[in-house]
């Protein structure tokens, strides 16, 4: 099992999760985060830290696409281990449908 970041993180990018991760497996894109599925130790401490409820275990239905999404971008983006302010759009975008298709950016974030 691993944990993955889903589309509800897009345009929110809360980083509360990165501070509690014991193995630094979060990677930062321009407007979202991802978890490297091979580095995640399945401890689950990040899941309750996410205000947007965007972190899910891969054992939930239909998570295969998110495992591959997280793998792809974690291999391209810089690691993030320190909390930053969320995006200014975080509150209004939390819970919006279709964020992957409408807003996702492949551009990397700044990392640490």
Automatic annotation (TrEMBL):
The keyword Transport applies. It comes from Paracoccus alkanivorans. Keywords: 3Fe-4S, 4Fe-4S, Electron transport, Iron, Iron-sulfur, Metal-binding, Repeat, Transport. Ferredoxins are iron-sulfur proteins that transfer electrons in a wide variety of metabolic reactions. Residues 1-30, 31-60 form the 4Fe-4S ferredoxin-type domain. Its cofactor is [4Fe-4S] cluster; [3Fe-4S] cluster. NCBIfam families: FdxA_Protbact (NF045490). This is Ferredoxin. InterPro entries: 4Fe4S_Fe-S-bd, 4Fe4S_Fe_S_CS, 7Fe_ferredoxin, Fd_C, FdxA, RnfB_subfamily.
């Amino acid at each position: 099992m691993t944990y993955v970041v889903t589309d509800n993180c897009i345009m929110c990018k809360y980083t509360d999760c990165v501070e509690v991760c014991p193995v630094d497996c979060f990677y930062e894109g321009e407007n979202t985060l991802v978890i490297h599925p091979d580095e995640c130790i399945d401890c689950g401490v990040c899941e309750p830290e996410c205000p947007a409820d965007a972190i899910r275990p891969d054992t939930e239905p239909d998570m295969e696409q998110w495992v591959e999404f997280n793998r792809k971008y974690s291999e391209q983006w810089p690691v993030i281990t320190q909390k930053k302010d969320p995006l200014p759009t975080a509150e209004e975008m939390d819970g919006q449908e279709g964020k992957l298709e409408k807003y996702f950016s492949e551009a990397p974030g700044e990392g640490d």
